Amino acid sequence: MLGCCFFLGQPPNNSDSQLQARIDNEARVFGDIVQESFEDVYHNIRLKAVAMLKWASTFCQQAKYVIRTDDDVDVIFPKLVDALERQSATHEHFILGRTNVNRIPIRSRNVANGKYYVSYDEYPEKTYPPFAFGGLLGYPLSTVKLLYLAALRLRPVWLDDVFITGICAHKLNINLLSDPSFTFAHLDNHSQAQSKIQSQKRT
Fold first, then answer.
1. What is the rounded CA–CA span in Å between residue 98 and residue 179?
2. Nearest-angstrom CA–CA distance, 53 and 164
3. Rounded to two decimals, what is the model's pTM?
4. Strands 131-140, 6-10: parallel, antiparallel or unpaired by DSSP?
5. Which of the four pLDDT bands, split at 50, 70 and 90, describes residue 123?
6. What is the 3-state secondary structure (H, E, C) of 3-37?
7. Dist. CA 13–CA 20, nearest whole Å
8. Are 74 and 193 a contacting pair, CB within 8 Å?
9. Is 5 in contact with 55 (CB distance < 8 Å)?
10. Pick from 16, 86, 162, 198: CA 20 to 30 A from residue 178's CA?
11. Residue 16 — very low, low, confident or very high, per pLDDT cuts 50/70/90?
C-alpha cells in the first residue's frame, strides 16, 4: 500500500496568509501535509530532510521502504519499489539514488552555482564524501531510522544530500547504490509534476 505526504515549512516570515490557507485546506481535504516550524526557504533544506526522516521513523512503522522525491520530479512508484526490492535482496542497509563522487564544495557566492556555497568553517574538507542527489532517493525504513539518529548527532552541513547521504551514510558505512529506475530530471512544468504525484498517490 502506498502512502504519500508533502513536507514543508512555514511561509517565509509567516507573511503569506493566502498560501497558508491553501496549505490548511489541502491538509483538511487530503490529510497529506506535514508542516514543520522552520521557515521554508532553500537554505533550510536540511531541516526539511531531517523532518522527513523523523516522520517516517516515528509514524511509518509499517512501511518497508521510504521514497523521497522533489515535487517537480516525474516518478513511477511501482518501478521504484521494484528497484528497492532488487537491492534489498543483497543489502540490509542502503541508499538508492543518483550518486556523485569527488564533488568539490562551492567556496564563492559569486559563481554560477553560488547558491550551493558552503564555508570552510561549516565544512573544511577539500571534497565531499560520495553522496546521492536529493531529488530522488530510496531506502529501507531501517536505514531511515539510522540516518535520522546520525543526523541528530553529527555536525551538520546545510546541503541536505551531502549531509544525510554523504556524511551520515559514510559514518554509518551505509552503501550508496545506483539503479536505472532511480535517475531523474526536474520537470519544466511544475504543476504537471504535482498532478502526476497526486494521481499516483490516490490510485
1. 8
2. 10
3. 0.88
4. unpaired
5. very high
6. CCCEEEEECHHHCCHHHHHHHHHHHHHHCCEEEEE
7. 12
8. yes
9. yes
10. 198
11. confident
